[in-house]
Amino acid sequence: PSIDPIEDIYKKRMLGSDVIIEDDPSKIIFALLSGSSVFFADGSYKAILADTKGYDSRTVTEPQNEKLLRGPREGFTEKITTNISLIRRRIVTTDLKFRFFTFGRRTNTLVAVTYLESLAKPEIVETLCERLSKIDIDGIIDSNYIEELICERPGAPFKTVGSTERPDTVASRLLEGRIAIIVNGTPTVLTVPFLFAENFQSGDDYYLNFIYANVGRLLRYLSFFLAVSVPAVYVALLTFHQQMMPSNFALSIVAAREGVPFPAAAECAALLLVFEILRETSVRMPNVIGQMLGIVGAIVIGESAVSAKIVSAPMVIVVGLTALTSLMVPRLKSAVLYYRVLLLFWSSIIGLYGYIFGCGLLIVRLLSMKSFGENYVSYFIAPNIQQMKDSFVRVQWRKMIERPADLSKDLVRQSSVKGEKR
User: Fold this and answer.
1) Could you give the C-alpha distances from 191 to 19, 227, 353, 372, in angstroms and in order?
2) Which residues contact 368 (CB under 8 A, 6 or more apart)?
3) How many CB atoms lie within 10 A of CB 120?
């Protein structure tokens, strides 16, 4: 029988891990458009594909939005092969599995789903792959496209799909049974399931002494509470419940508000709007100019507004405190904005009763939410005490014996220290 020239050339001259034979025209065209070299030979319908891509890519640097006091200084890049290697370098086991997908009829964006086979629950893996298989779009530019297409409630203020630019964070989540989604062209990697407690976790919580780390975590929880509650409670007390304030405090506020023509609710809403405008402006401007604009703008506008009796000084303090605390929980910026306005609205109508009603709506929403079938607040209502050891606070590593029960098939993280109570 005659020998196929492509087969003959491949076996004798072009053997290699990045060289394959392909006979599917669509795959040959896709490889050519992706930067691979294609070799044809007369008399054969096959082609040799050689991975010779040479795209310029950004070097591995520390993510600007997720800096730590201690720990790795590496961050993901826009190149999917680099990102996969950063994960493989941290989890060196054959148990680490990858599934590859291509999305976008015009962009043909490569997406990798990675998980630890012995830890990730098969039903969660299959649910994710099923949702991914239903995606039909002409282009994927960033991982947020995938995030909104696979989450349960795209319009919900709380995220049910995690995102990070740190390989160490992804590795730690994989070791808890979660699944990562790597999208070519973006440094942001998605993780699922994503639970409410993860909004308050930071890499420093696990790299620093647990006492110091717990102080920071508790401050984040407190900051979230203050960011959504302070304006609403202040307006409710000032408008409906003046008798609940200490006399000296109430007199100071009344004196400061003398001459201000607007009701407290309108005054607060206007200042919050100005803060959001300043924040958005500082983000869109170059770094140095943006920082200066945010600081100077807040000082000048606040001082001028108080001097002109447009707003009162206590309200500027309230909004300033709200702005600072909201910056401590960047993953919850959408939820903070949404529930801050909601609580302010109800408090301005029926006072503290409205605030309590709004908090009830918030709690009901959290209790009803799920992320890929897992209870969104399971860390706080878990019957397993081991799961609660990394919720409001983190206990010592020697006491974190088990993984979260709802996420992993294998619960045992480490063997018990002799004499240590579980």
Assistant:
1) 32, 26, 38, 11
2) none
3) 25
Question: Which of 182, 185, 149 is closest to 163 using CA atoms?
Answer: 182
pLDDT confidence tier of residue 290, bands split at 50, 70 and 90: low
Contact 279, 294 (CB under 8 A): yes
List pLDDT tens digits, range 73-128. Answer: 999 999 998 999 999 999 999 999 999 999 998 888 999 999 999 999 999 999 99
Locate tokens 């008798």: which residue?
243
Amino acid letter for position 64: Q
CA quadruple 152, 155, 159, 164: dihedral positive or negative? positive
* DSSP β-bridge partners for residue 371: 374
- For the chain, how far is it from start to end, CA to CA, in angstroms? 70
Query: How many whole angstroms from its chain centre is CA 258?
Result: 44
C-beta neighbour count of 72 within 10 angstroms: 16
Handedness of CA 272, 278, 284, 287 (dihedral sign): negative
Measured in degrees and rounded to the nearest 5, phi and psi for residue 281 equal -65, -45
Q: What distances in angstroms separate CA 193 from CA 131, 135, 145, 376, 406, one per listed residue?
A: 13, 19, 17, 9, 10
- Amino acid identity for residue 18 in this structure: D
Ramachandran angles phi, psi of 397, nearest 5°: -60, -35
| Tens digits of residue pLDDT in 312-326 | 888 989 998 998 899
Q: Are 162 and 191 in contact (CB under 8 A)?
A: yes
**Residues 24, 391: Cα–Cα separation, whole Å:** 51
Tokens standing for 67?
């800096």
- What gap in Å lies between CA 422 and CA 292, rounded to an integer? 51
> Which residues, other chains included, contact 13 with Cβ-Cβ below 8 Å and sequence gap of 6+?
none
Q: What DSSP state is assigned to residue 151? A: S
- Tell me the mean pLDDT in the region 329-358: 93
Contact 151, 160 (CB under 8 A): yes
3-class DSSP state of 362: helix
Tokens representing 344 are 């302010």
110, 182 contact by CB (below 8 A): no
pLDDT (tens digit per residue) in 116-164:
999 999 999 999 999 999 999 999 999 999 999 998 887 788 999 999 9
> What is the rounded distance in angstroms from the CA atom of residue 161 to the CA atom of residue 158?
9
